[in-house]
Amino acid sequence: MTDDGRTLIRIAEEADAAVIARIHMTSRSATMPYLPPQKRSHEEVTGWVQDVVLRRCRTWVAVRDAEIIGYAALDGDMLEDLYLRPDVRRQGVGTLLLDEVRRHSPDGVSLHVFQQNTDARAFYESHGFTVLDTSDGDRNMENLPDMTLRWTPDSSR
Hints:
Blueprint: E1 2-3, E2 7-11, H1 17-31, H2 42-56, E3 58-64, E4 67-75, E5 78-84, H3 93-103, E6 109-114, H4 118-126, E7 130-135, E8 146-151
Parallel strand pairs: 5-6
Antiparallel strand pairs: 1-2, 2-3, 3-4, 4-5, 6-8, 7-8
Helix pairs in contact: 1-2
């Protein structure tokens, strides 16, 4: 567990699924207005978190004042998700989660990010991620241009 005095990082539990789903949904709608409207209900997204994310990925949550405020999901060396409650952005929570992911990824971490998501791109680039490739959107369900970013321990030196 990691603790910055206010925010604790811990492994996610199945009981966290509904809160993780809410964070996933609210963060995407608040920070990526270019995405198509959400078609799945909170219950459906909670099911996806329980059945896919928590089973396939190593998942951590950021907790402040007994409330989950963000999460990160790592599948092998691929960061599948890193989402925060919109009201806690730019407070270091994303960095705490990313640091935890990197601690568990000694050979490096890759991720996909929408090309339009300039805030996320700037965040990852400020943490030493570099662009590996770009895509026209044929590899994501939103069909939006994206890019693969990669961090390796050597790239931060």
